[in-house]
Every structure is written in C-alpha cells, then in structure tokens.
Amino acid sequence: MIGRLNHVAIAVRDIAAATAVYRDTLGARVSQAVPLPEHGVTTVFVELPNTKIELLEPLGADSPIARFLEKAPDGGIHHLCYEVGDIRAARDRLVEAGARVLGDGEPKTGAHGKPVLFLHPKDFCGTLVELEEA
Ligand SMILES: CC[C@@H](C(=O)O)C(=O)SCCNC(=O)CCNC(=O)[C@H](O)C(C)(C)COP(=O)(O)OP(=O)(O)OC[C@H]1O[C@@H](n2cnc3c(N)ncnc32)[C@H](O)[C@@H]1OP(=O)(O)O
Ligand SMILES: [Co+2]
C-alpha cells in the first residue's frame, strides 16, 4: 500500500537556524519558509536527490510541534511521510486493521497541496506516520 518516502520531518525551535544548518553546513537546497496555520506549523523543505526533509517550527498556541518540543527541547525526528495512491482507500484499510487515524479521519490539504492523514505513533512502532496522496 505505501510507496515512496516523501519526507522525513524534523521538529525544530528555530527554523531559520535549522535552515542555515542544512543550507550552509550540509550544502543542501532549501525552500522558503511557509506558514501553514491550519496545521500549526511553519515549514521549510530541504530537497535531497531521493527524498525531502521537512523542517517544522511551531506556529500558534495549539501547535502539535510545541507539545513535541516540550518533551524533546533539542528537537528531533517528528514523523515519516509515505505516499499512497488512494488516501481514502488506504485509510479504510488501516481502520479495518485497527489503526488509529488522527483528527476527524478526513484528509486535510498538506504542504504540497495534496491530501494528507496522520496515523497514531503507538500503532506504528513508536513513529508518527503521515500519508500523502501521490
Ligand atoms: C505541513 C503539513 C503537513 C505536511 O504536509 O507535511 C505536516 O507534516 S503537519 C505536522 C504536524 N501535524 C501533526 O503532527 C498532526 C498529527 N499529530 C497529532 O495529532 C498529535 O501530535 C499526536 C501525535 C496525536 C500527539 O498528540 P499529543 O497531544 O502531543 O499527545 P501526547 O503528548 O499525549 O502523546 C501521546 C503519546 O504519543 C507520543 N508521541 C507524540 N508525538 C509523537 C511523535 N511525533 N512521534 C512519536 N511518538 C509521539 C508521546 O510521547 C506519547 O507517548 P507516551 O508518553 O508514551 O504516552
Ligand atoms: Co509532514
């Protein structure tokens, strides 16, 4: 069901500093910072030859990234995003298998303008999983 690894997301306190690390120290191509209030994050994408890194800074009082950083003040890997062909079919199959889909279960528009869903980390080896329709 899952296909390509679309991105690995890293939660950070200071997205400008993290962007500088990837751009200046690691020599990667980085995007502009984009605020996404519906998701409670500001994002920067680091383009790699085989996948992307999504840098996430908290945005707003209810940001899921703020809660994550309370437990991991230095930041860290927050989620993995896998591509699927049909996100609603994938959701229905996962729910039938007993997995918890987060939120109201309906896909939201993600950072790439495509439908996304999140799956509970306790059901996936301690890793928060994002699905993005390819
Ligand atoms: C930019 C848009 C989009 C894209 O297109 O790429 C994005 O990536 S947006 C990214 C941000 N959005 C989300 O994270 C949405 C989904 N997340 C959630 O619904 C919540 O963050 C959560 C995963 C349900 C956690 O909610 P929270 O209120 O923080 O609950 P707890 O703190 O009680 O956590 C419960 C339990 O789960 C562990 N946990 C929490 N977050 C993670 C994580 N990222 N990875 C692994 N484990 C995680 C947490 O430690 C708790 O465990 P215990 O302490 O053992 O109970
Ligand atoms: Co993501």
UniProtKB/TrEMBL annotation:
It is an enzyme of class 5 (isomerase). It catalyses: (R)-methylmalonyl-CoA = (S)-methylmalonyl-CoA. The keyword Oxidoreductase does not apply. Pfam families: Glyoxalase_4. Its EC number is 5.1.99.1. GO terms for biological process: L-methylmalonyl-CoA metabolic process. SUPFAM superfamilies: Glyoxalase/Bleomycin resistance protein/Dihydroxybiphenyl dioxygenase. InterPro entries: Glyas_Bleomycin-R_OHBP_Dase, MeMalonyl-CoA_epimerase, MMCE/EMCE_epimerase, VOC_core. One of its GO terms (molecular function) is methylmalonyl-CoA epimerase activity. Residues 4-134 form the VOC domain. The keyword Metal-binding applies. PROSITE patterns: VOC. Keywords: Cobalt, Isomerase, Metal-binding. Belongs to the methylmalonyl-CoA epimerase family. PANTHER family: METHYLMALONYL-COA EPIMERASE, METHYLMALONYL-COA EPIMERASE, MITOCHONDRIAL. This is methylmalonyl-CoA epimerase. It comes from Saliniramus fredricksonii. The lineage of its organism: Bacteria, Pseudomonadati, Pseudomonadota, Alphaproteobacteria, Hyphomicrobiales. The gene is epi.
